[in-house]
Task: structure prediction
Amino acid sequence: MPAIEDAGDDLPSTAEKTLFGKYEVGRLLGYGAFAKVYHARDVRTEQSVAIKAINKQRILKGGLAANVKREISIMRRLRHPNIVRLLEVLANKKKIYFVLEFAKGGELFAKVAKSRFSEHLSRRYFQQLISAVGYCHSRGVYHRDLKPENLLLDENWNLKVTDFGLSALTEQIRPDGLLHTLCGTPAYVAPEILSKKGYDGAKVDIWSCGIILFVLNAGYLPFNDPNLMVMYRKIYNGEFRVPRWTSPDLKRLLSRLLDTNPQTRITVDEIINDPWFKIDYKEVEFHCDHLELKDDEYDSPTSTSTSDNLKVMNAFDIISFSSGYNLSRLLDDREVGERFLSTASPEKIIEKVVEVAEGERLTVVTRRESCVKVVGGHNCNFVMAVEIKRLTDELVVVEVRRIDSEVGPGHHIWKDKIRPGLSNLLYKTGPASCR
Ligand code: ATP
Ligand code: MG
Result:
């Protein structure tokens, strides 16, 4: 079977191909503005997945790869029954592949298009939506692009919100909200985005949730007009009318959601206490699997370090050890890496790296509590960064990333000098290298 690693956008939609020997890629599920989404099967587990393929060039052009990496690592940590899970991220020279949980039931709005939902059903989906949105907001993650295409259903017809956390990715491709909305419909976009005032991600998501609730109940959009300028004006002014079948409580909630002033717009906490919303609302219970380590510490994107300034890894980081690829290669295609476990203290590991490196006449350019960077070698073409992350109280992960050549002098420095120099400190060799 041919590999699709290098396939371009012209990949035939019906082709049966294997991605990295792991996923059998099948039919095309849909197109986004910048991606194609395929159905695929995990060769090992037979599980269905969706694979979203994005051209790497589009991301790198923005020069914000580090930002994208951060967003991805946040997204990987989101675990909620109403959010499509990001299972893995794979990359090759040309593309990034997001391996996503497969939402078998298709798009929610395909169902609304057939007929509007009862108030009871509208509430059920809205509750699931707010549960997902609240979960992400409390972790500092905003969607900023909530719209029908991103609301999917699983096999039990439960809501699955997709693309959470990918906003940085799409925003740099479409640098502002307005540009993006001109590509599609502005119908779901909050007035403060249209007026380019700068906006609060949480408030913008709430507005979009208001539009979604309106559509579920009414079967049509609250702000709509064939003339875009008229539509914008309606959004700015918050001019909408609820259909006659809307109950007074729902009407009240809609007017709080579609408040054009982001300052006074209802918050997630207020929604959860709203009388219409509260009916039959069941808070989601979370089941953490045994790999989830001290989850609270990684919940917020800003809390990636602990008191001793070491990064703490979570279950996804550990699982991604075996993925065979990592996104560090987004930054430089020549970069390779390896990870090891160690029981030694970070201080001791750093000390040893410096000692060996200096013995090889390499220059230490950065030295901190948990990382060290050295350069040198023939024509200074060897660059190595060692970063230490706390895994458990006893164990740390030593992550070595280097730019060298497989056969060149750099490889020799690593393989013959530094690696053996560290061997006493290494508890166990990690199963995967980045290449
Ligand atoms: P954008 O580029 O703004 O994200 P989009 O949301 O329309 O636009 P994609 O996220 O690329 O585009 O998805 C395209 C289509 O593929 C979706 O509309 C949906 O029908 C389908 N799709 C996406 N993710 C999944 C998934 N996890 N399971 C099943 N189908 C999916
Ligand atoms: Mg999408």
Q: What stands out?
A: Residues 1-15, 171-184, 287-333, 428-435 have pLDDT under 50 and may be disordered.
